[in-house]
Every structure is written in C-alpha cells, then in structure tokens.
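Why should sequence recovery work at all? Because a backbone constrains its sequence more than one might expect. Tight turns favour small or flexible residues, buried strands favour hydrophobic ones, and helices have their own preferences. The token representation captures these environments compactly. In the example below, the structure is given first.
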C-alpha cells in the first residue's frame, strides 16, 4: 500500500523509485531528519577545509564519509533495482543515525565553551528521547504505526499501519472496557476477511464470555482493520481471489466473507477508534440494540 494504491508484486508491478526515500522521510521523527541533514552539511563544510584540520579530525571525517557513501550506495540499489522491500526502510536506520550523531558532536564542540547552554541542550535532548520512550509505551501495541507529525494527517488509509494485526487484542480489550458499550450485548466479534487471524490471536486467552463469530450476521461487534479494508477494496479481482484462497482454509467450512465496508451498514454504529500517533488504525462497530 503506497500513496493509496496497491502495488501487486505477484502480478509483476514494481514500486516507484522514490518509495524508499519517501517512507524514510514520513516514518522518521522530524528532528532526526533535520539533524541528519545538518550532519551531511557539516561533513561538506569540513571537507572544504580538510587540510586545516588535525589528523584525528581528518580521520573521523573520512570515516563519516565512508558511512555516508555506504548508505547512499545501498539506498540507490534499493531504489533502482526493483527490490521487493516491504518495510525495508527500517534496515537503513543505523546509517542516518550515524549522520545525526555527527551533527550532535559538532553541536557539542560548538558549545564547548558555553557550559550553561550546553547543559540546556543536553537536557533538551534527554527530554526528547524520554518523550519518544513514553510515546512508544502509550501507543503499544500500535507503536509500529508511527508517522511523524508532518506526515500523519495525510497518511490515513493511504499507507500501511498495523500490517501484522498487533492491535486486534487491544481492540477486543478496549471494547470489553468501553463505558459506552451496551452491556446487554454478548461480546461476539467479527473482523471480516481477517476473522481467522483474530480467532488465532485469542485462541488461548479469550474468556468464556467472548467468542469469534465467523458469520458477520452473528456478531455484535465488528473490528474494522482500517489498513486491510482499504487494501482489499483496492485489490484487483484476481489478486483478491488468490488472497482469499490462501486464507480460506482458516475459516470454518471454508467460509469466505463478502467484500463490503461495515461503516455503510445501518444496523451497526461506530463505538470506538484506536489511534496511533493520530492515525486511525482500528475502528470497532457495535450492533444496534
């Protein structure tokens, strides 16, 4: 799923060349991107006065250029070789993290004689890392759906979020604990095309009061996995058939659910939404009493 379109790899389609750099930009915190860019600019400036630097500074600069060139070569290879790199940008993180640290080191040297400002900068950096640590904990188990604040308002249903269905358990727990839930309704769940995975997830831990309803008409609650509803709606008929052929063995009696959107059904209303960093990841609908 890229820019709201499905790239059907099995049908020979390839992702555009800018797939990796764009995903890097929208899934990386903005300060990290800015520090990485600053690191590259500092490398260029230092290279222009290379001969005037001490031997250890020259060695460090050459080492950083080696990292930058290695990163650039591998990134270009991934961009132009038509590689199938699902989530592949995460494997490049350690490269631009080094560039970020280079800019932080340059900042430290700049503030070497300004003790008070250096302490403030160090405290700000510590708070920044603490913020992300708290954000990861608060968004668990959907922390992997991160998009930076600039990109988040524009990625809804156009880019992948909870691809591995890590939020299905959180959705069931949130429904169980929801104060607005109709307590007279049995906790029977359906997740459309992903029902087998939802059932597998709760095979060992769901209580006797909860059950998975394979037939959506038997369910009182529907877990809409925003990403998969968007993906499956945009698949070609052939790929959708292949997808369901792969998963139908996990349904009771090889039941295959129809392809439709639950938010159009008048017998259900939206109960709650699970978000990650401002992006809708899961919506839970409740049957009208």
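From this structural description, the recovered sequence reads:
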């Amino acid at each position: 799923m890229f820019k709201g379109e499905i790239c059907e790899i099995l049908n020979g389609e390839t992702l555009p060349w800018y797939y990796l750099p764009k995903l890097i930009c929208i899934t990386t915190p903005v300060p990290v991107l800015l520090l990485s860019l600053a690191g590259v600019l500092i490398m260029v400036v230092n290279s222009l006065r290379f001969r005037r630097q001490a031997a250890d500074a020259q060695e460090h600069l050459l080492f950083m250029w080696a990292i930058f060139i290695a990163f650039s070569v591998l990134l270009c290879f991934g961009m132009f070789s038509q590689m199938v790199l699902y989530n592949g940008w995460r494997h490049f993180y350690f490269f631009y993290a080094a560039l970020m640290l280079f800019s932080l080191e340059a900042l430290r040297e700049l503030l070497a004689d300004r003790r008070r400002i250096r302490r403030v900068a160090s405290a700000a950096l510590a708070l920044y890392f603490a913020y992300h640590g708290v954000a990861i904990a608060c968004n668990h188990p959907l922390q992997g759906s991160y998009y930076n604040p600039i990109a988040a308002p524009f990625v809804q249903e156009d880019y992948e979020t909870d691809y591995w269905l890590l939020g299905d358990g959180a959705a069931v727990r949130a429904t169980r604990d929801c104060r607005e839930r109709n307590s007279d309704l049995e906790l029977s769940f359906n997740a459309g095309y992903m029902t087998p995975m939802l059932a597998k997830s709760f095979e060992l831990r769901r209580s006797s009061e909860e059950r998975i309803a394979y037939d959506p008409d038997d369910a009182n609650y529907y877990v809409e996995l925003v990403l998969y509803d968007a993906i499956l709606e945009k698949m070609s008929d052939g790929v959708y058939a292949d997808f369901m052929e792969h998963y139908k063995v996990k349904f009771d009696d090889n039941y295959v659910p129809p392809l439709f959107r639950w938010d159009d059904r008048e017998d259900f209303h939206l109960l709650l939404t699970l978000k990650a960093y401002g992006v809708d990841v899961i919506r839970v609908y409740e049957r009208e009493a």
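A few observations help interpret the result. The CA atoms of residues 60 and 102 lie 10 Å apart.
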